Amino acid sequence: MKRQSVPLVLAVLLLAGCGARGDTGEAPPAAASMTVTVIDAGERTLARDIVASGSVAAWQEMVLGVELTGIRVARVNVEVGDRVKAGEALLQLDARTLDVAARQAAAGLAQAKASLEQARAAANRGASLVEQNLISTSDSEELRANLSRAEAQVSSAEAERDAARLRLGFATLRAPDAGVISARSVQPGQIVNAGNELLRMIRRGRLEWQAEVSDADLGRVKVGATVELLTPDGATVQGKVRAVSPSIDVQRRTALIYADLPEPGQLRAGMFAQGRIVLGKTAVLAIPRASVVSRDGFKYVFQVGDDARVRQLRIDTGESQGDFIEVRAGLNAGQTIVLRGAGFLSDGDTVRIVTEED
Q1: How much is the pLDDT for 5?
Q2: Beta strands 310-321 and 351-353: pairing type?
Q3: Cα 304 to Cα 38: distance, rounded to the nearest angstrom
Q4: What residues contact 318, with CB distance under 8 A and at least 6 apart?
Q5: Beta strands 226-230 and 272-288: pairing type?
Q6: CATH fold of 51-59+204-282, please?
Q7: Residue 22: what pLDDT?
Q8: For residue range 262-271, what is the model confidence (pLDDT) as tens digits?
Q9: How far apart are CA 1 and CA 205, in angstroms?
């Protein structure tokens, strides 16, 4: 019994001594739970823009046809996609009948002019003879009446000649302006009628972007604002807003904006395109996207205090550009926040701060 009690007493004394030496009255320091990098929140110049989508369309698409009926097409000079100049011949009708009619009208005018000369000479002779009392006054008046009828016949013949020439000119369909042929629905040998659509042309080859903008953003869009669209090959096409719709769709609560595309690149009429309307640049409080944590439908950042503890701050974010996002509320410029590693933190955690090189 004496042998067994000696080790037990020694163990109790040893534990008591250890407790006495370790009891200093201070809590042990908390271990850092995460290694992070930090950044000071500051202002940054961001481009203000509105993201929108819409269709690419022709600025003006002209429907072309002829003004004659029942005439056969002799020749079509253009294909879809051809660029044409103002006044260029696009289509030619069989003009043989019209040419004959024009020559007949010209001959009729020449005959009327010859008759006028005869009537004028006769009227002059009659006036001289009536002064000599060689013919009666009634005969002289008849000669003057013949002269008037001859002059009217010349005027009528000139009108017929001009009409025949005009119809002959209608046999050639010419481009009313420069542009690009966008559709063709006529073939040689086809009998055409007045008013039928034969060709379509995009006037001056100009395309525009017709995009929908919400009523909340409509007031921010001004004529002359720059737009940037993405083409199918990944390139960027720039344009300018030329008009803003004065009315809003009451069902969709949107309005159309019209933007000229001087150099459309790979864009074609009828394509759907997404783009943005550039409103200008503004200095705002912005932080890297990597600093923002989304939890329970809200956005947060972690501010780092002097004691290396983090505090979770709820923020209100705005527009973003590249790797940065605008902070509208909840954070002030100059506050130090976690840059990398925020997604694994909780409010009150202790962190160890390192630099990017570490």
Answers
A1: 43
A2: unpaired
A3: 8
A4: 284, 325, 326, 327, 328
A5: antiparallel
A6: Elongation Factor Tu (Ef-tu); domain 3 (2.40.30)
A7: 44
A8: 988 889 999 9
A9: 114
